Amino acid sequence: MNAKDEQFAFIHAYSDQYPITKLVEITSVSRAGYYKWFARKGQNIQDRKDESLLPYLIKIFNEHKGTYGRKRIKMELENQYDMMVNEKRISRIMRKYGLRCKIRRKRCKHKPQPYGEIPNVLNRKFKAIKPGKKLAIDITYAKVAKGFQQWVYVCAIKDLFNQEIVAYSMGTSQNMRLVYRALEKLKKRRFAKGALLHSDQGVQFTNPGYRKRLKTMGLIQSMSRRGNCWDNACIENFFGHVKTELPCFFQPETVHEVQEAVEAFIYYYNN
User: Fold this and answer.
1) Which distant-in-sequence residues (6+ apart) come within 8 Å of 68 by Cβ?
2) Theoretical Cys-Cys bridge with 77: which of 11, 83, 192, 256, CB 3.0 to 4.6 Å?
């Protein structure tokens, strides 16, 4: 075995414990060279290593009636045989030799929506024939590069008739005041009596104070189904524009600069 083969064998011997990139750094061979070597010679070495470990895996697997997966087999190898084996290697050998753990079935409990059932009145019917009839609300964020605060949060309300952002507020916390300020701005705009205001299931929009405020304003609340972002795609589309296009126009760094940039972008987007 020449010097390079010895280094490749060294990398392979410790590849279960350390990343290949790190092992290559402490040798004089390349990562690409190691993979070429492994394709030529390493497979046979790996097979022999797997075969030497296989009897222990089968013994533990059978002792526990096939209920042990890679994590518990790893623990058992350490406790019974004082063998330290990487979980990924155990998983690969189990797949290779058809040792399938009897996985417990995960039971998903469908939790009720907070504060009662809020219907999805909008139901992805995003087209509106009149302004101020169908509105959507949500919260997004913009990164702050300098200063103590990391994010500026934006609560925006969109009119689905012409895709205009008709009200918005910004702040360094996504609390209820952020949402209420946006609703106060919406009050100053015209919207139809009994207009629909759609949101996702964020905690701000299931808050009793928020729901009470919508009733006071004469708005009908609509809410997306649990875990279904497409139900509120109309405003998610706007947030996608903000995150993709705003950096093309502005390079804000401080909280104040970010707020000014978002405000300028909303004006640009609306017009």
Assistant:
1) 60, 61, 76, 101
2) 83
Domain-embedded: residue 107: no
Angstrom distance (rounded) from CA 143 to CA 146: 9
Paired tokens of 206: 């299931």
CA distance 60 to 206: 49
- Domain extent, residue 56, equals 3-96
**Alpha-carbon gap, residue 213 to 218, rounded angstroms:** 9
Same structural domain, 154 and 239: yes
Whether the CA torsion 177, 178, 179, 185 is positive or negative: it is positive
Please tell me the distance from the alpha carbon of residue 172 to that of residue 40, in angstroms, as a whole number: 57
pTM over cut 0.70? no
How far is 165 from 184, CA to CA, in rounded Å? 14
Q: How far apart are the first and last CA of the chain?
A: 72
3-class DSSP state for residue 266?
helix
Q: Is position 113 within any domain?
A: no
Report the number of distinct structural domains present in the chain.
2
Among residues 136, 122, 239, the alpha carbon closest in space to that of 191 is found at: 136
Tokens coding 209: 């104070």
> Which amino acid is present at 58?
I
- pLDDT per position as a tens digit, 188-231: 887 888 889 999 988 899 899 999 999 999 999 998 887 777 78
